[in-house]
Amino acid sequence: MTSPDRPYLxxxxxxxxxxxxxxxxxxxxxxxxxxxxxxxxxxxxxxxQQEHGGFLRDIGFIWCPEGLDEAEAQxxxxxxxxxxxxxxxxxxxxxxxxRWLAAVGARPVAFDLSLGQLRHARSLNARTGVSAPLLQxxxxxxxxxxxxxxxxxxxxxxxPFVADSAGVLREVFRVLRPxxxxxxxVSHPMRWAMxxxxxxxxxxxxxxxxxxxPYVESDDAGVPTYVEHHRTLGDRVREIVAAGxxxxxxxxxxxxxxxxxxxxxxxxxxxxxxxxxAIFVCDKS
Length: 285
Ligand SMILES: C[S@@+](CC[C@H](N)C(=O)[O-])C[C@H]1O[C@@H](n2cnc3c(N)ncnc32)[C@H](O)[C@@H]1O
Description:
There is one protein chain. 28% of the residues lie in helices and 21% in strands. The chain contains seven helices and ten strands. The chain is globular and about 45 Å long. It is of the alpha/beta class and 285 residues long. Strands 4-3-2-5-6-10-9 form a seven-stranded mixed β-sheet. Strands 1-7-8 form a three-stranded antiparallel β-sheet. α3 links the parallel β2 (86-90) and β3. α1 (30-56) packs parallel to α4 (115-128) and α5 (165-175) packs parallel to α6. The N and C termini lie far apart (48 Å).
């Protein structure tokens, strides 16, 4: 079964083991969302890492399917300035970004909701010999002290999925020191108006951009098994500002010439015409 109108992320090769009976836009509470996504990422982690691990590299900081690399983009600040900084990676998956941060001299801590993903992070820590401390946590309730972190980052981790993204922003603001920076990438909000199809169908508007109803997959009992929550661009900006941040930049990476790799609904065809990723650079005064 395919779910062609999903906004982001998994294709049939990343399908969790739970049978998917219903796919569509409907309400999902915070608890339902968290429960569904923890189980989904636990069961999809092996396939996700097998499919995308090579592109992400064991030690590498790739922001998005367009391949924007922190080593060149330097959205966290000049790489040379990261030495000694305490950096929090949110929704780290296999913690490729955190290992890159460790390799350039930062002091990362990486966390994820999913133990399945963290198992990959642990084995890559061992295999590469570059270690990032790992923990399991929910981005909506950070187990860190106030003003204990210099920088926070998230490459498609947590923010596209959570019911309470405003709460995540408040939590990140709380744990950042004054002068700290939070940079996060999500699927570009305008993609929610189109089918998540790498082909021409993915260029047609089939639903309202303004419909904030979450995308939900459910089992035969109607229990959600996978959830993503939509925010418009304006919603994202308002949540960032309401948390106390200054929005310093909004990066919409362009599809690079010669980049042919598809990732779900991201493809050269769509990437050359419309943005696929939004990256928010947020500063705490
Ligand atoms: C698309 S993956 C991105 C992982 C990694 N940043 C990368 O680029 O491969 C999304 C990750 O967000 C995690 N996640 C989802 N909801 C979360 C939450 N509430 N708190 C923390 N992590 C969450 C998932 O478990 C998953 O590992």
